[in-house]
Amino acid sequence: MRSPHRLAGKGGTWSLGRLHMHPPPIPPPAPSSSLPATSQSMNESLRVLAPEPHQPEWMDDGAMMDIQRPSPPKLLAPSSPATERPQGCFVFPTASSVPLKATRCSVLALVTVVVVVQGALAHDSIIRLRQGNVQGVIRETSTRQIYAYLGIPYAKPPVGNLRFQPPRRHEGWTTTFFATEFGAACPQPFLTGLQMSEDCLTLNVWIPELPRGFRQYPVIVLLEGELFVTSAPSRFPGQDLAASDMIVVSFNYRTNAFGFLSWEDRVLPGNLGLRDQSLALQWVAENIDKFGGDLTKVTLLGHSAGAASAAYHLVHPRSQGPFQQMILMSGTHLAPWALSRQPRVASRRLSEHLGCGYVSGSSYLLGCLERKDVDQIVKAVERLVEEGNPYYLFAPVVDTFLRPEEQVVPLEPLSAIRESANRRIPLLLGLSENEGSVMLYIKREINYMTFDDLRRYAHEILVPMVTSLHGYGEDAEVVKRMMEYAYPDKARLGETYTLVLEIIELFTDGMFKAPVIKMAEEASRRGLNTHLFVNTFVSRDIYRSYTNISGALHGAELAYLFSPTAYRKFFSLPLTYNEEQLSQRLKSMVYNFASSGLPFLSQYSPRWGRFTLASPTYASLESGQIHEDYQQHKVAFWNQLLPELYILDQSNPGSTTTSTHRPTTVNPTTEQQSLGGCLVPVIQPGADGASYQSAVWVLVGVVLVLLGVIIAYIVCSRRRKRLTSGTLRSQ
């Protein structure tokens, strides 16, 4: 574990975490014997911290300035006014030297002011927590200085016999902890250029000003991550968002096997990553007011897997987390990837890659994993993800095998939102138009595959994977065929780029869009004050060389929200004018929602109504306009049509469907008929299409029954009229 002491370097170099900043060059020292004692003692007491005139290209504008005072450079005085030009402002000037000495006196006065202010900051920046004292660093933004407290441990390092164990509260420290740099990221694959360690359970706080007790700020707690495989909040420094009058908190938590491996018993229960998050949120509840945060205005902001995690905390029956609003961006616990349905399958496969042999039980597996090096486990996890089997993904599990007071996910996600959403808090949901682009980062070779390889991948790997993640089972051939027809089969023969786009769209709609809209509907039905926004802004390629796909890519909105610092980390470029406008709109939306629970994009934007079943409104981040019914038919395909088809197929006892994969040589969208002015696709069943024939016969039977009822009604009506007319004639 890192020592809480971070000391200044030697030889005039100040050690600032990973940065080393040197004092500016000064003239050669003159003998100090002629310097008055008073000025000499004053010079000895002055301490100045200044960067070099030239800033290295690897140092961004958020480079930190250590608040603690290092060893000072000495100010100089002349040894002999008769033989040398006066160096200070203590010698009475001659007429010819007045401008030069006046300038140098001004510089000395300015340095003195800076020293006094710097000394005050060093004293006042210490914040007293229950764990001990912490002292941070200054981060510069384009508008103001921000105070950052980085790498504060909130739990004991989960190493040794604490690996694969629930987190334990950090005991604290006895001397001042210099929170000057990010803690190491938790072990994970794919993300390169990051320092990683199992000693990773740390958090970060950015505040707009030092706490004086006069003002409290709304608090944003960031939860990020991708598919519960990776997470590194250091990619999104919070100083630029804190400059908009908010306190920002982010923290590390364990992911992949380290955080979610489970044997579904008390030895390896899983959900350790969610437990890490709960302990970090408890830390926020106990300490954020010491930083000037308003405990009545805490907003949990989750993105992707972080959004799914936040939703789990929302719907937990006993959740009393320190948050009064919630923002879920590009994810929810209803997403098919947000729950592991067969965790033992993933655990066994991991043990095979690690050479653990046959796993007789959780105790044997735990003993084997504790003896493995962390890098071995990370490489094994990477191989599991690349294999593409959905059952090999580590994610939260339903832990009903534990005692009720120990459970973290006691219910299936949909049941949880319907039965246990006991907190009626404002909820802001958001998604991007091209969320599926994230799969091109994980499956990087897609960009280099031929059309035939892509089609095989779509039919044999991707569609079965999405079907399984949605919980349809291995025999849901009708559902698979509908997915194939609606997405990859739309690409004409040889149109490789079109097929790539269709694969991205399948992943976007099934894994992100449909679950987010489902969450909005269920939350609205439960009475939560729900709002929805959509990002359609075409951003730069956030995945760099891994894809040439453009659009509103997954994760781009997070880079804009934490810009310009986070944006420079991805692109090494400044924001364009349109990107700056989008960034300001995002920050305004988050600030307004965190402050009042009501989002609006700008002072003059249209009224942004609640998302309800009767009026499913949403706001466009790009235009600032308000719309309704976001891609209604696409969402209905996933949330209504596919579940109904699956139920119909399973309810047919004579169904013996097998794979219906048939390479398509024509564009299936041309196989359409006009019905009532609408184009309706006609699905041609093959020799094994018994389920389609059964469905058609059921529909025909229903229509015949309805026709019989209508005919009977007409006949009875006419007979009644004849009887009535005959009675009138007889009278």
Structure explained in plain terms:
The chain is α/β, with parallel strands linked by helices. The chain has a domain at 14-27 and 42-124. Helix content is 37%, strand content 12%. The chain is built from 19 helices and 19 strands. It has helices at residues 37-45, 98-124, 239-242, 256-260, 272-287, 305-315, 343-353, 362-371, 374-387, 413-419, 439-442, 451-469, 477-486, 496-525, 556-561, 565-571, 577-596, 632-650, 690-730, and strands spanning 14-16, 19-21, 64-66, 127-128, 133-135, 137-140, 145-153, 177-178, 202-207, 217-223, 247-251, 293-303, 325-329, 427-432, 530-535, 617-620, 626-628, 672-675, 678-681. A twelve-stranded mixed sheet has the order 3-6-7-9-11-10-12-13-14-15-16-17, with helices on both faces. The protein has a three-stranded mixed sheet with strand order 4-5-8, with no helix packed on it. The protein is globular and about 100 Å long. 42% of the residues are buried. Mean pLDDT is 78; it is low at 1-103, 111-122 and 656-692.
